[in-house]
Amino acid sequence: MRILITGGTGLIGRRLCGALLAKGHEITVLSRRPARVGDVCGPGVRAMAALSEWTPEVQFDAVVNLAGEPIVDARWTAKRQEILLDSRVALTRDLVACMAVAKSKPSVFLSGSAIGWYGDTGDQLINENGVAGLDFGARLCVQWEQQAVKANDLGIRTVILRTGLVFDATGGMLHKMLLPFKLGLGTRLGDGQQWMSWIHIEDYVAALLFVSEQTNVNGVVNMTAPGAVRNGEFTQTLADVLHRPACLVAPAGLLKMAMGEMAILLLGGQRVIPQVLNKAGFVFRYPVLQPALKNLLQKE
After folding, report:
1. Domain of 113: which CATH number?
2. Which of 180, 185, 272, 294 is deepest in the core (most CB within 10 A)?
3. Is there a domain that residue 87 lies in?
């Protein structure tokens, strides 16, 4: 298959490119730094510097949309919110516009989103039928998905990937936490009761490939492991795997003062069920947190 990936140089994209190359697919990655694509994503991966290169004559059998500026790297000022929206909503709109004029349309469009779509849901169990939240993160995801689902009107099977915390020791949230935890500075966030819905990077890539091949899977898919945990449990489990203490607490009030509205990313949570994946027959290799962390950190 000929596959276009946006966000291909990111944490998930790099792993996905490797998995697709191993299956013999032809990969093109949209990147603002095309010279890096071959080194980052693998030899043989083609680079596309701008969507204008996707002319109506160019054929892609599948499109995977993973692009987006990091949501946690800077406080949610008005300017930052515009950047976050543009990197997701505008790009997705432009992708669908390219599909609309393509002479041969993709058979499937896999478009990223996040479980932040649900907002802070407390202890409620959330499947793909949950309602949208009201904070900025939720509104961002709502607008992002609204652009993606327009591909349905083109007759393209569209899958919305509502992604939880993707754990990989080489990058992302877990990687950033390793140093303080190794130093014995593992810290619970607030009261530690907020739910964290996570997924091992290997399961994420496997699930993405699974839904791309399952033609009966449409619409929203929660991309999380079935074993969501509270922040307090996560903190202690990571510390135990690293054989370090985790006695510190970051007070909720202090986090709110420092981060403003963005503090909901740390103090809020979602207890998500991957109902669509479960019903479709996907088998998680790492459904439980401790074995997942042990696998990821076995070389640490």
Report:
1. 3.40.50.720
2. 272
3. yes
Contact 141, 166 (CB under 8 A): no
Q: Are strands 229-230 and 195-196 parallel, antiparallel or unpaired?
A: antiparallel
Q: Which residues contact 95 (CB under 8 A, 6 or more apart)?
A: 6, 51, 63, 65, 109, 111
* Amino acid in the structure at residue 100: A
- Whether pLDDT at 73 is above 90: no
Tell whether 294 is covered by a domain.
no
For 164-181, what is each residue's pLDDT tens digit?
999 999 999 999 999 999
Task: Find where tokens 């439980």 sit.
Answer: 288
| C-alpha–C-alpha distance, residues 130 and 246, integer Å | 34
Beta bridge partners of 272: 126
Question: Model pTM greater than 0.90?
Answer: yes
Range of the domain at 163: 2-167+198-224+272-278
Check residue 64 and give left, alpha or beta (phi > 0: left; psi -120 to 50: alpha).
beta
The domain tally of the chain equals 1
DSSP state of 130: P
